[in-house]
Amino acid sequence: MALDYISEDVKRLRKSESEAQVTLLLGVDGDREALVDRIEQIGGLVDARLGRATLRVSAPENLTDELCELEDLKSIEVDHEDVQTLGSDSPGNDRSLPLLTR
């Protein structure tokens, strides 16, 4: 099964022989728990399950190519630590609308 999306960073990492750790976000299209097992079998560590279809995985750079070949994987990208998620303590931006609840 071909991936729908591979980030440019991941394309470069596929050729890496480094054992330096990288954190990746994997989009899952299939059995998530079976994919978790396969990731751990090849030496990756699933740090978090995000929503229903995303896994945050830490692995040596030299495993990136093998991770890209896993079945049930829809997308893969580097988890950039500079990405900020909006929460109740975040001001958002000047165009943000308040969340209405009933």
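Second entry:
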Amino acid sequence: DEGPELSKAPSGAPVDLPELPEPDELWHPIARDWYLSLRESGPAVFYQPSDWAMARYAAELMSRGLNSDRPPNGQYVSALDS
């Protein structure tokens, strides 16, 4: 047995994405760009509704951090990166 079959993500934007919410107008431009870039990412073909919900949550946290006057917190950045 050679193990499970591997699926490769296509390059470029997927053609069959679900209807996704637009980024919040109040998000920081970097958070907005990151969220929109996910739609153009090949791995997006594998995203489930919970992945898109997590992306919105991450973009909200990212935006709040970027709009803050305080320096980034290491735990906060680590959580966004996981």
